[in-house]
Q: What sequence folds into this?
């Protein structure tokens, strides 16, 4: 029944009666049901009979009555006395309760008023996870551009149940309804609709609800999420949402029953699963089997069981860490070592005792103060030491919000000396080290995110130093947070003054992260094999000797790992066809997937490149001494016969040994072809002059035959690009920013300086930073030059490898693209023919706005175990195979291919994965299921690595601008030109701000909102720099005037 009014109604108008009835607080019902489910009130919203929930102001009410004749039954004193209350309220609803036109702009499918019935629930808006989901996303630090949409969107269909969660609130179940751009629409068990990015969804149950049950809901759900208010007037009818709530309620009830029945085990999950010293990685299913399976190997957890286990893990979020960026895809949890958890809990306890002691002192008037405990002394002594170190640091560097300024001393750069010098200070005690590790977990690896008590303990240490006032605290937070903690660790000499936080991501598991003990173990085992690696060539009998064939390795002069080379041969008697051979380093023929080097490669996933240093996937002694391309080195060769239209006529894969190898740089290649490829490059340098590079090498002496081969390669490259372009392929015209760092004259990069937890380290001097970028004329490029030869030939090898594997149904990590719901282009080919091509014919190149729209319409890349088209490249199928020394997925492809080649050599038959599926002994190292599991594991890591490399480059760019903007280390122009790349939208305004990049250096910036300013994608604005924030890696600019907007395409 509906709630009854406990107040007397005589003499009280109907409006006041309504307000009195529903403004009083409600007590929760605690009635238990026999079936073990939660009470009905917990599974469904309170039943009310009104669409309208908005409080109308008097002017709007007056306007309504002025334009319409009032219903006499609704006049004060006439309603309830003459009509039953339900009938009276129905009349009121018809006259005043319809949603306004402004509200319905966000609900394009909302039924006309004649179809609206008095059965729509107003939801109980207590604080729930579904309500806070969107707000939490808006607080994320940076970098969320919806990229996870592709990886995760593949596995989310209407009717899938998901778990919505946010900090400090119990997760709730919801059902996925539909997708709007980068926002997903859900309907929760509480009856509310809400919107969230797919990247925030950490768990899903496929096919939980029949999509047909969702159809009646669609008219009552927003079609424009950015304009719809979750607490607005339009909600979903009870009769439509009831079946869905019942299904989700039963699932929730079953999960609660399982949890209660196994509470003793689930509440002690950590003590049963954790290792004392090593991080354990387990999937949710493995954890459920370990806790609930009762040692039955055949037992499989139900969806409800998985929910029950997730609830237990959610209550121990620090002990069971997960990566929200990929959690729903991988369902992997990292179980922290007991020793590390003990340290955190110990320091947390010390801080509490210190706070209690300080409070006791403040409230004690006696002359004899209470004696502090040993734990209190640990914190007090550390704070006292920190204050001394901070004072010393501030004699040399100025503190800012989240970062330190440049050194007051500049050291000369020479062959023997560095521009940076470390001066060692006080030693840290064992208790100091534990406190420092506690703070590093908060700041660097962000282990305490959404854990308020641990966050508070960290900030209380900083507050006790009394060294950080509002001017030093982060300007946007206006309170102590991780940015202040980062500054504190720099000032006490733990972190360097220019520490790149991006490389400390726990999920990277690089040597920078203290918890990467698995990596330490793998490196130790790999080093033990160095004296006697015992490499045996599994393809020795199938190798071809390439003899005098000229193999050209085209790479930068400083390249250490040479993955690939290329050779070319004309078809005899046919001047329009060529054999193009791409020779790739071949480590996989010498060790299998069980080798320690394979384990190390799988852990690293890829070589990680940052401006300061590289973290190689394989140890340098392996790649450089055995497998990097050179004379007499083993190779796997991907050969393609093509014609001058760019069509691939024939492919083959063979193993061999190359003898005649020529190393040549791109510049030397262009010079050999008598082509001038110099382009305008913009540069900004802070900290001094960039060390002069050695005189340019003249390159190898090339014969006329070799020069002709290079010309033939150029001819082939142009033909390949022509073919890809005809197939819809594109070339991105926005060039990446390049950053070089120098601390000595010998080479670019910085020496490895891990956090100093033994002694305080004061760093004098700063590195020279060079930021540069090639000028970008368009979002897409239409032509190529000799610098693109290697790129086109490598793409050819990847297409040929994909075609070869697809023909044999070999499961590998294919790459392709899928269309996204965030694009409003439904037919890409039609859009290209009717919009893109005519624009190109008229203007010669695409505008930025049209270019961005076209690129977005082509879809985004994904990895899959079966071949699929790659629209951006313009290929029917695509498989990365050209970098086995730097990318583990390429190694997997090589292992699969080599197994198939050995099978074909032994049997004389073409390999067919389906035909040999039932053999007693597997032929391929990776089955279809194992390949899919590998993709699920590797894809998120590849994305994290890509983001880390991009963030690292951007961090050093922001460092350079900080030193130029605040400390005048190099002149900056008064204004800059910025291109708008994307809009930052909110539910209340069409465009609050915009993301863009500086046209000269391609550095990302945020255009701040301004009165009367409306940004459009592709705009060019003149801006003035407003703020440079090194901690968050953000540069903010203010718009001055619009310089250019595409008149033909907005």
A:
């Amino acid at each position: 029944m509906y709630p009854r009014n406990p107040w007397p109604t005589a003499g009280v108008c109907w409006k006041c009666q309504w307000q009195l009835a529903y403004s009083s607080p409600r007590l929760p019902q605690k009635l238990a049901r026999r079936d073990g489910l939660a009470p009905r009130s917990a599974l469904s919203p309170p039943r009310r009979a009104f669409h309208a929930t908005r409080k109308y102001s008097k002017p709007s009410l007056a306007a309504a009555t002025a334009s319409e004749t009032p219903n006499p039954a609704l006049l004060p004193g006439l309603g309830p006395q003459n009509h039953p209350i339900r009938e009276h309220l129905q009349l009121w609803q018809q006259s005043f309760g319809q949603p306004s036109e402004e509200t319905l702009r966000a609900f394009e499918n909302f039924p006309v008023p004649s179809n609206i019935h008095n059965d729509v629930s107003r939801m109980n808006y207590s604080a729930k996870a579904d309500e806070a989901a969107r707000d939490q996303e808006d607080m994320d630090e940076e970098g969320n551009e919806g990229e996870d949409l592709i990886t995760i969107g593949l596995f989310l269909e209407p009717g899938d149940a998901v778990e919505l969660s946010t900090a400090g609130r119990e997760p709730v179940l919801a059902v996925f309804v539909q997708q709007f751009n980068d926002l997903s629409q859900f309907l929760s068990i509480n009856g509310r609709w809400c919107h969230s990015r797919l990247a925030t969804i950490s768990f899903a149950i496929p096919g939980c609800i029949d999509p047909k049950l969702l159809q009646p809901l669609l008219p009552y759900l927003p079609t424009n999420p950015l304009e719809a208010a979750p607490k607005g007037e339009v909600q979903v009818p009870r009769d439509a949402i009831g079946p869905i709530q019942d299904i989700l309620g039963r699932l929730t009830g079953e999960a609660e029953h399982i949890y209660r029945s196994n509470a003793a085990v689930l509440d002690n999950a950590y003590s049963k699963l954790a290792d004392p010293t090593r991080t354990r990685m387990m999937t949710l299913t493995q954890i459920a089997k370990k806790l609930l399976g009762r040692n039955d190997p055949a037992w499989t957890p139900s969806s409800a069981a998985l929910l029950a286990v997730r609830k237990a893990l959610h209550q121990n979020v620090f002990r069971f860490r997960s990566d929200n960026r990929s959690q729903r895809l991988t369902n992997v949890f990292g179980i922290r070592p007991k020793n590390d958890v003990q340290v955190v809990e110990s320091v947390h306890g010390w801080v509490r005792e210190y706070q209690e002691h300080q409070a006791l002192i403040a409230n004690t008037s006696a002359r004899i103060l209470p004696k502090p405990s040993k734990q209190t002394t640990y914190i007090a002594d550390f704070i006292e030491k920190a204050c001394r170190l901070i004072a010393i640091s501030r004699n040399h560097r100025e503190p800012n919000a989240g970062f330190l300024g440049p050194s007051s001393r500049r050291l000369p750069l020479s062959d023997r000396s560095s521009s940076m010098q470390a001066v060692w200070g006080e030693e840290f005690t064992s208790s100091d080290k534990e406190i420092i590790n506690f703070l590093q977990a908060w700041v660097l690896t962000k282990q305490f995110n959404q854990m308020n008590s641990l966050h508070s303990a960290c900030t209380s240490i900083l507050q006790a130093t009394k060294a950080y006032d509002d001017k030093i605290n982060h300007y946007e937070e206006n309170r102590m947070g991780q940015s202040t903690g980062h500054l504190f660790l720099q000032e006490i000499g733990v972190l360097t003054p220019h520490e790149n936080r991006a490389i400390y991501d726990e999920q990277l598991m690089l040597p920078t992260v203290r918890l990467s003990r698995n990596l330490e173990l793998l490196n130790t085992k790999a080093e033990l094999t160095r004296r006697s690696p015992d490499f045996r060539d599994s393809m020795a009998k199938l190798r071809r000797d390439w003899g005098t064939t000229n193999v050209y390795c085209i790479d930068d002069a400083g390249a250490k790992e040479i993955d690939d080379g290329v050779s070319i041969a004309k078809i005899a008697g046919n001047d329009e066809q060529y054999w193009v051979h791409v020779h790739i380093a071949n480590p996989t023929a010498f060790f299998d997937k069980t080798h320690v080097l394979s384990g190390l490669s799988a852990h690293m996933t890829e070589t990680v490149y940052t401006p300061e240093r590289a973290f190689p996937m394989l140890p340098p002694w392996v790649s450089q001494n055995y497998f990097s391309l050179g004379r007499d080195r083993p190779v796997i060769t991907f050969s393609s016969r093509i014609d001058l239209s760019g069509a691939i006529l024939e492919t083959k894969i063979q193993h061999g040994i190359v003898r005649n190898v020529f190393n040549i740089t791109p510049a030397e290649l262009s010079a050999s072809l008598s082509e001038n490829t110099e382009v305008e490059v913009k540069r900004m340098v802070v900290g001094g002059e960039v060390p002069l590079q050695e005189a340019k090498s003249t390159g190898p002496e090339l014969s006329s035959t070799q020069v002709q081969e290079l010309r033939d390669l150029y001819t082939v490259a142009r033909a390949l690009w022509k073919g890809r372009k005809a197939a819809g392929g594109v070339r991105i015209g926005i060039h990446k920013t390049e950053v070089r760092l120098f601390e000595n004259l010998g080479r670019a990069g910085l020496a490895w300086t891990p956090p100093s937890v033994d002694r305080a380290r004061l760093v004098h001097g700063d590195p020279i930073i060079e930021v540069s970028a090639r000028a970008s004329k368009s979002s897409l490029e239409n032509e190529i030059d000799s610098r693109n030869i290697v790129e086109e030939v490598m793409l050819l090898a990847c297409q040929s490898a994909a075609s070869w594997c697809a023909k044999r149904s070999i499961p590998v990590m294919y790459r392709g693209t899928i269309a996204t719901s965030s694009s409003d282009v439904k037919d890409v080919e039609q859009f290209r023919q009717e919009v893109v091509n005519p624009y190109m014919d008229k203007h010669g190149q695409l505008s930025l706005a049209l270019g961005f729209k076209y690129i977005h319409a082509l879809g985004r890349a994904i990895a899959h175990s079966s071949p699929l088209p790659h629209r951006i490249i313009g290929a029917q199928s695509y498989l990365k195979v050209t970098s086995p020394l730097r990318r583990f997925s390429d190694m997997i492809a090589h292992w699969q291919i080599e197994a198939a080649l050995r099978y074909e050599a032994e049997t004389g038959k073409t390999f067919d994965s389906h035909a040999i599926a039932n053999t007693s002994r597997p032929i391929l190292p990776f089955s279809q299921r194992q390949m899919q599991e590998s993709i699920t594991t590797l894809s998120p890591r590849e994305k994290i690595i890509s983001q880390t490399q991009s963030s690292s480059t951007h961090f050093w760019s922001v460092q350079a601008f900080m030193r130029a903007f605040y400390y005048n280390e190099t002149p900056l122009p008064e204004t800059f030109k910025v291109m708008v790349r994307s809009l930052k939208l909110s539910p209340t305004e069409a465009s609050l701000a915009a993301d863009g990049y500086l046209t000269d250096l391609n550095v990302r910036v945020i255009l701040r909102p301004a009165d009367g300013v409306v940004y459009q994608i592709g705009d060019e604005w003149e801006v003035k720099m407003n703020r440079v924030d090194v901690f968050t890696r953000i540069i903010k600019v203010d718009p001055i005037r619009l310089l250019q907007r595409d008149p033909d395409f907005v």
The chain is about 35% helix and 20% strand. The first strand starts at residue 161 and ends at 164. The chain has four domains: 155-320, 338-363+370-404+428-495, 517-689+703-752+763-819+859-948, 973-1044.
